[in-house]
Automatic annotation (TrEMBL):
<keyword id="KW-0342">GTP-binding</keyword>
<dbReference type="InterPro" id="IPR041095">
    <property type="entry name" value="EFG_II"/>
</dbReference>
<dbReference type="Pfam" id="PF00009">
    <property type="entry name" value="GTP_EFTU"/>
</dbReference>
<dbReference type="GO" id="GO:0003924">
    <property type="term" value="F:GTPase activity"/>
</dbReference>
<dbReference type="Pfam" id="PF03764">
    <property type="entry name" value="EFG_IV"/>
</dbReference>
<dbReference type="Pfam" id="PF14492">
    <property type="entry name" value="EFG_III"/>
</dbReference>
<dbReference type="InterPro" id="IPR010298">
    <property type="entry name" value="YacP-like"/>
</dbReference>
<dbReference type="InterPro" id="IPR000795">
    <property type="entry name" value="T_Tr_GTP-bd_dom"/>
</dbReference>
<dbReference type="Pfam" id="PF05991">
    <property type="entry name" value="NYN_YacP"/>
</dbReference>
<dbReference type="GO" id="GO:0032790">
    <property type="term" value="P:ribosome disassembly"/>
</dbReference>
<dbReference type="InterPro" id="IPR020568">
    <property type="entry name" value="Ribosomal_Su5_D2-typ_SF"/>
</dbReference>
<dbReference type="GO" id="GO:0003746">
    <property type="term" value="F:translation elongation factor activity"/>
</dbReference>
<dbReference type="GO" id="GO:0046677">
    <property type="term" value="P:response to antibiotic"/>
</dbReference>
<dbReference type="InterPro" id="IPR027417">
    <property type="entry name" value="P-loop_NTPase"/>
</dbReference>
<dbReference type="InterPro" id="IPR000640">
    <property type="entry name" value="EFG_V-like"/>
</dbReference>
<keyword id="KW-0046">Antibiotic resistance</keyword>
<keyword id="KW-0251">Elongation factor</keyword>
Amino acid sequence: METEKQRAKQLVVGILAHVDSGKTTLSEAMLYRSGTIRKLGRVDHKDAFLDTDALEKARGITIFSKQALLTAGETAITLLDTPGHVDFSTETERTLQVLDYAVLVISGTDGVQSHTETLWRLLRRYHIPTFVFINKMDLPGPGKEKLLEQLNHRLGEGFVDFGADEDTRNEALAVCDERLMEAVLERGTLTPEELIPAIARRHVFPCWFGAALKLEGVDALLAGLDTYTRPAPALDAFGAKVFKLSQDEQGTRLTWLRVTGGTLKVKAQLTGESDGGPWAEKANQLRLYSGVKYTLAEEVGPGQVCAVTGLTQAHPGEGLGAERDSDLPVLKPVLSYQVLLPEGADIHAALGKLHRLEEEEPQLHVVWNETLGEIHVQLMGEVQLEVLKSLLAERYGLEVEFGPGGILYKETITEAMEGVGHYEPLRHYAEVHLKLEPLPAGSGMQFAADCREEVLDKNWQRLVLTHLEEKQHLGVLIGAPLTDVKITLIAGRAHLKHTEGGDFRQATYRAVRQGLMMANQIGKTQLLEPWYTFRLEVPAENLGRAMNDIQRMEGSFDPPETSADGQTATLTGKAPAATMRSYPMEVVSYTRGRGRVSLTLEGYRPCHNAQEVIETVGYEPEHDLDNPADSVFCAHGAGFVVPWEQVRSHMHVDSGWGKSKPAETDAVAASARQAGRQRRAAAYRATLEEDAELLKIFEQTYGPIKRDPLAAFRPVQKKERPDFAAEQWTLAPEYLLVDGYNIIFAWDELNALSKESLDAARKKLADILCNYQGFKKCVVILVFDAYRVPGSPGSIEQYHNIHIVYTKEAETADMFIEHVTHEIGKDRRVRVATSDGMEQIIILGHGALRVSARMFHEEVKEVEKEIKRYLQGEV
């Protein structure tokens, strides 16, 4: 009976913070007050329960995520303490993917810091409900009101002091959530049952103020975690998410996972897929860790975290059973160092040891340069470098040094370009045409297809997309990875007899490369470098020196802020990582230890000294035999190579895309644009004229539609959803599926509206799509995720001229969209508007076309402009 009770409220809670905010001290206090430990340890005394590694004790920071078990009231909590230093933020990101809730620790003396904002963006990305503990309130600082104001200003609305009196608290809560406002207006009070869903929706972020070192506010936080949380719904079938690899003191490999459904029993056989193919292994032991000690379990249920022995193939981010794989981490390494081995060391043995560490450390990438016979490591910062050196010495007795660090650059393009790849040695054939177009900074790589099946069969199109996704494409300036580029398949050709799968791989790679070379030829390629966001605090007398330093380092900063006593000045801004990564030591030197700087990776921007870097690297793209841009054609029974700049004159397919055509004169271009507007206007008029026919079709499918001019202002009447049948969508030629919440939170205007009222944001999006459908003449299916709504039966509703789907309990919008694209993507044109990375890959596999939230926003805005022009009589 006790086991059932614990499982009914079993939570995984992560604790996160900017370094030196007192995160580990708070973890220690929570364990002590809950009765898990009898002695209160301290970081500065090097006896903290969770800082068990020698390097952690020496540096006084958390480097590896740790687990502890505690009980708060009726809630069994698995507490995951994550690293606070920015160098280990990838470890934190992996941990986030298995959390039910998070506790974000803020320093009461420092407030919101640069890395705090990075952590908040990650919490928002993974939709983690968050509690906030403002620590060190026993020390001088800005005070509660200023700190709350800063939280709401820097991180967003919804932060409420749960230690305030009830009336004050309820007044603040009413502003955060529409349903809470209705309850406050109706009764004047709020119950925990009403607050729990608001917190789960991330509309409310409960805050407690205290001092963990003195145990102040800790009991209130524990009570809040017990009172205002609910367990995540569990899958019926077994599912688990792997989030970390490590090894124990005996060298046994531990695979850390969180069970999300069903039950994991000891000796159960688990299956998955790694780079080497499918694997099947037994879970020999199930260890429930608390600090360095563990107990063995016979079985582990939903909501529990355990370390499993016996698994050698599983990797972080992998989903087991019914659980899907995680999205790729957002944070990537930005620095690169050469590994210098001791004289006489076996370089290949050392490479194997580094690869074993790479499995455990998600922020470490090991690169073997076979040409030079060198090992390079890519990581986040110099503290991580010290940890790597220590691990190699401690675990393998390998004493290494590192060469001077280098920056990990990336490349992109600044103008759309067509790339052509042809591969036709004797008895082989494939030609591929790709459109390469730039994306906003931080978008990464996106792949799509916009090619008719009569031009290239769907199976070949899918193969091209697979080849685009399977490789890291390199730029042509210095051979750095390509980023912020969308690559779309627009044309191609196969041979009935001679085409093999490998032919399209060769043609696809060459098409990407040829397009990049064409872009570089006209100066439309760009070198990118990582930039830091910094916060620099120095004595007032050093402010002038600091401002000159930032300008010297090609950085920028906001107007300086001076402390109330005039003793300290603060600069915040941005600067290239190449110029600033060694600056923290310089600050300590010239301020005599009184200054400090915190650096957080902001993203990639155009390189400040691109020409110098390009000349230094000396990369020659035409001599890169692993990434050829030339194509292979066949004549007189033999293949011959055509240089990349001449491929267009030999190609067999004309995609009709712009770069193969002569430039239009302004008059011709204006005429073409006018003709396009007329065609779109004609399509819009045709839609209006066919309303009667469309109405008839819809009524045949869904029954009579009752016209009500006020219907748009009333809640939609839900009806029980029937089982999905693909036949009900077969009447229209093109389908657009929209992931509703994904779009709402991606579009700024809808996201802002959702903070006031999610219902209003849903209605606004539905109205926008109604106008869009009227112009584009397609079937629009708007999908809203209700999988966390207990007992939701799901429904399919008619809203004017679009369909709105509310998913069933335990069915996400992703799952519904995947099912629909699988059913109707075989013989119909289907597009899906979403920004979900995993969903993008799945729907491409089902033959659908993905439209990012940003691109769809631009498309909708263009449609609205065209409708406005038509209504104003401009076309």
